[in-house]
Amino acid sequence: MFYATEDINSFLQRTKKVLAADANDFAVASNIIEYLREVIRFHDYQYYVASAPLIDDYEYDLLYKKLKKIEEDFPQLDDEFSPTKRVGKGLAKDFEQVAHIVPMLSLDNSYNEEDVVDFDRRIRELSEAENILYNVEPKFDGGGISIVFEDDKLMRGVTRGDGVVGEDITTNIKTIRSIPWQAAFSKYGIKTIEIRGESLIKKSVFNDYNLKRIEQGLAPFANPRNVASGSLRVKDTMEVAARNIEAMLYHISYAVDADGNDLLGTKLTSRHENLKMLHSLGFQVPWEEHKRVGTIAEVMDFIHSWGERRDDYKYELDGMVLKVDDIKLEEKLGATNHHPRWAIAYKYSPKQAKTILEEVIFQVGRVGTITPVAKLKPVFVAGVTVSSISMFNEDFIKEKDIRIGDEVMIERAGEVIPYIASVVTISRDGSEKEIEFPTHCPSCNSTLVKPEDEAAWRCLNPVCPAQQIEKLIHFASRDTMEITGLGDAIVTRLMQEGLLKTIPDIYHLKEHKETLEQWDGFGQKSIEKLLIGIEESKTRPLTKLIFALGIRHVGEGTARIIADAIHNLDELRDWTIEQLILLEGIGPKVAASVFEYFHNPATLAIIDELKAMGVLTVHPIKIQTNADGKLAGLNLLFTGTLTKFTRNEAKKLCEAAGGTVAGSLSGKVNYLVVGDNPGSKVDNAKKLGTVQVISEDDFLAMLNS
């Protein structure tokens, strides 16, 4: 274990102590900051590696915010290896090419059990040994990575590349919380070590992520492997962190001591023991998932047992890897130009099915994205019958050269979303037809456009009927305004009857009660249920309203970030792109989309009408401020070392006067009260342009005015 079991209780006590400590004083802050970092690293390990969290998300957030605040208030205590540095704002530079210390060879693989038996025979012949131990572990379906530690610190992360040279992705590797930044390799006499593994994403996370992309009108990813490998080459580190990529490490390829002596085969002699060492140092490794065995019969039993339960495993895996455990024997066996002779992968049969693509239709999403949908001859694959599949965009069709009438191979990504894995071109007889992508919207006939930085064609007509249906369905859904009784079928029927055209029309439906009563199959109870649901939706939190508006690139998490930064939805009419980017978790693309939405007369008219109908567009908690206080309605933030009062006293003075104290700098802050050594907050406040920077004396003068 990373930390001994008997220490868990003491770490939980540390959690309580550091949360209770008043860190507004430099001496106190400097005394607890490393303590706090250690506690956060421990809870990161428990959550991301051990999958056994000991505190809830709220307690963890308190710890993280406390550490971040100390580092902001006292820049001299900053540390490049702090847990708060895992995600930085901005874009990474172009990824440089880096040579691996040891080439990353491919594995020889087979779907045939006889090949594994033959592999064992060759090993015994080449080694002239009777007793051979094997390590058997899952073959993870992710993106190959290599990380290097030197002097116990993470120095570099590299993609597999061509096996000899990869891309330096160190900045993105540091966003992976299952990879510690520091590890005590020195206690094993190791100065420099290169470790191999896979970037992964849990199947459940992948499915949730794809569902959110679909809600935002974006094409879902084909499979977890593409997300895991592709994410580490995304330049926006905030986006990388948001995808919840993990790492599974399983192989030490290089290890030397301070004198440059090779430790593999001398001090580090067993793959099993190497895995155990990495596990003890806090790395996520396939410790519970692997087994060391001595016979090929045991190997195959373990492989088959995993084949039976792989569907229930949290990550995608496509086989099992068999490795010689003895590193000295491994070196003796050597490698070909393509693969090592001491390992082989046994691959499970893929979950695929073959069928015919009979037709293609083009659907219009709520933000105007045109999605080609393949209509298939129904086929059973991975537990379900599939007859319709999204083909994402025009590029996907061209890349795979998909044609109407083709025989295609279907897979299910992450056990949920089916996709076309390949085309069986050998089956073509010349009757197949190329798919012609439309130039005009299938719903409103508007000319389609394709932005330079995007793969999808879009309809930009704001009153396109197909978009309006999707927007209305999204607005009323459970994740947004939760309007009971307003499901997909009812929305579609109301649109067809001309009772709904835009979102505000929902709140006028009570005016059409008599018309609804004439509908077949729509009784009085259903109507009352619908109208009550519409009325109740007016009080939904601001977060839900922002998400419900269907702003492009704004999902549920982003909506929460925006809502927490404002008092009133109307404030966003005055925000700049630069102000939006300063919000933690908001990148340039999202900021531009939000700015465009709140500067579009058509969408502003929708918001004005929603307000007029009584829909809540403010934080209810903001309405309850002390109207008589001298700071009523004002948000203040304190930074630096305060000399006139403690941070706690300042907070009490502010709240007693009706004001609120913000936890971080954003557009909702009215005044930044500055003490000694304020750090970067002053410069950031000036960039915002809406925050007034004042001294402690100015603050006291406001209270006494």
What does this structure look like?
By secondary structure, this protein is an alpha+beta fold. It is built from 25 helices and 22 strands. A hairpin with a 2-residue loop joins strand 13 and strand 14. Helix 13 runs antiparallel to helix 14. The longest helix has 24 residues. It is flat and about 90 Å long. It starts with 7 loop residues before the first helix and ends with a helix.
The CATH top-level class label of the domain at 109-347: Alpha Beta
Regions with pLDDT < 50 over 5+ consecutive residues? 1-6, 621-625
Helix content: 25-40%
Count, helices: 25
Global geometry: flat
**If you consult CATH, what is the topology of the domain at 109-347?**
D-amino Acid Aminotransferase, Chain A, domain 1
The SS-based structural class is: alpha+beta
**β-strand number:** 22
User: What oligomeric arrangement do these chains adopt?
Assistant: single chain
User: How is the largest sheet built, in terms of strand order?
Assistant: 2-11-10-3-9
What's the name of the CATH homologous superfamily of the domain at 109-347? DNA ligase/mRNA capping enzyme
Largest sheet: 5 strands, mixed
Mean pLDDT, rounded to whole units? 86
DSSP strand (E) fraction? 15-25%
Ends apart, CA distance between termini: 59 Å
Rg value: 29 Å
